[in-house]
Every structure is written in C-alpha cells, then in structure tokens.
Design goal:
The chain is of the alpha+beta class. It is built from 3 helices and 7 strands.
C-alpha cells in the first residue's frame, strides 16, 4: 500500500518478519480483524504523529477524533506520551485510546 502521509502510517510484521504496510492505523486494525491476525502477528507498529519514529502500537497513546485529518478519514494520531495525547485530545475534541480499544 502506498503511504500518502507518513505521520499516519502503520505496519505489522508476521512471524517470518514480513511487513505489511498501511496508510493508517484503522486500515491495519480492520485488515487484522478480517484476516484473523490479532494473535498471530509478531509485531504492530504505528508512526509517531511527528512522522519520525515508529512506536509499538500496543504501547502508544492514540488520539481519535473526526476532526483529525488523515488518509481515508481515519482520524487517529499516535504518540508515545500520555500528556501529549491528552493535549491533542482536547485540541481535536477527541478521546485517548489504546490499540486494543480499536481492535474491539
């Protein structure tokens, strides 16, 4: 998949180390559910909202809001810091979530 905006990118690795890339976290979550990968993937990554660092999706703080622009209207930003997540949630009138929350 083509990554249109790096700051929203996501990626999963299988047990053999093969990467599947996504242009946003929602797409990765939907793909994982459709392919029944929740417990099979070796690793889940999301790009930090600054577009510079990959974060472990299971440890990242996610901010979800309809007012966050992004590929395919995903409306999710990932950050590594809880305080920054709270600030972004207030700014975008959104909520702070975790990866497991998206997969439910």
């Amino acid at each position: 998949m083509a990554i249109s905006e790096k700051r929203y990118a996501a990626e999963t690795l299988d047990a053999e180390g093969n990467a599947t890339k996504f242009d946003n976290l929602d797409c990765m979550s939907r793909y994982a559910t459709a392919q029944n990968l929740q417990d099979k993937a070796a690793a889940w990554f999301v790009m930090d909202s600054d577009g510079k660092d990959w974060l472990d999706a299971r440890k990242a703080f996610l901010v979800k809001s309809a007012t966050i622009p992004g590929p395919m209207g995903s409306g999710v930003l990932a950050v590594k810091d809880a305080a920054l997540a709270q600030q972004l949630a207030q700014h975008f009138s959104g909520q702070v979530m975790h990866f497991e929350d998206l997969r439910k």
